[in-house]
Write a structure and sequence with these properties.
This protein has 205 residues and is an alpha+beta fold. It has helices at 18-27, 85-96, 110-118, 165-175, 185-193; strands at residues 8-14, 32-43, 49-54, 57-67, 70-80, 83-84, 107-108, 124-138, 141-150, 153-162.
Length: 205
């Protein structure tokens, strides 16, 4: 079997992407439309592990490196609920980078995990995220424009990703995304919920 290479990614967020969206739709037809409801677990002790739950499945991705302004992420864990206490203690909480609370159950359902562990932990927060995403193929890259609701607050996101860095940089230029800051979901959500400060020039834009 051939080795699966983790993709590099450029993602950003804004109230609207008028010109970017117009250029994407001119360059390529929509490949697919996807909607999803997810729960992101935000940790005060970590800015490098992205943890979310969708359809009772937990997905943890870890930041690998940054190159030419692009970020590379790699899967660290995929787990399903109910989840064993050992998985929470040995895999999930080390990814959060915070103290592990006393785990009294042998297994935890998603509801028990959220209400008994996350919501009572002073360094963790559960954030509801709804996504409606439109996917394109631009310059051999996966591209996306979408609506995102973070605890009900609406934003738009735009994304380009590939294993080929130069293809991404060219696609960014083609869509005017090279004028934006690279912001991953982890940082965007933390800014919305007040766990990270907004950029210094936020109020000047």
């Amino acid at each position: 079997m051939s080795e699966i290479k983790p993709r590099f990614e450029f993602r950003t967020f804004a109230s609207s992407f008028g010109i970017v969206e117009e250029k994407m739709r001119k360059l390529a037809p929509v490949d697919k439309i996807r909607e999803s409801s997810e729960i992101y677990i935000m940790s005060a002790g970590n800015n490098e592990n992205n943890t979310k739950v969708r359809d009772d499945l937990m997905d943890i991705k870890v930041f690998v490196k940054e190159e030419k302004g692009l970020q590379q992420w790699n899967p660290r864990m995929k787990g399903s609920f109910p989840m064993e206490r050992s998985s929470l203690a040995d895999e999930v909480f080390p990814a959060f980078g915070v103290s592990t609370p006393e785990l009294t159950r042998d297994q935890y359902t998603l509801d028990q995990f959220l209400n008994e562990i996350i919501l009572s932990h002073q360094d963790l927060s559960a954030v509801k995220v709804f996504k409606r995403r439109f996917a394109f193929t631009i310059n051999n890259c996966i591209a996306e424009i979408g609506d995102v609701y973070i605890n009900g607050a609406h934003m738009q996101t735009a994304n380009i990703e590939s294993v080929n860095i130069e293809d991404i940089l060219k696609a960014m230029e083609m869509t005017s995304l090279d004028e934006y800051e690279n912001v991953n979901y982890l940082m965007a959500i933390k800014r919305v919920v007040g766990m990270e400060p907004l950029p210094k020039d936020f109020y000047l834009k």
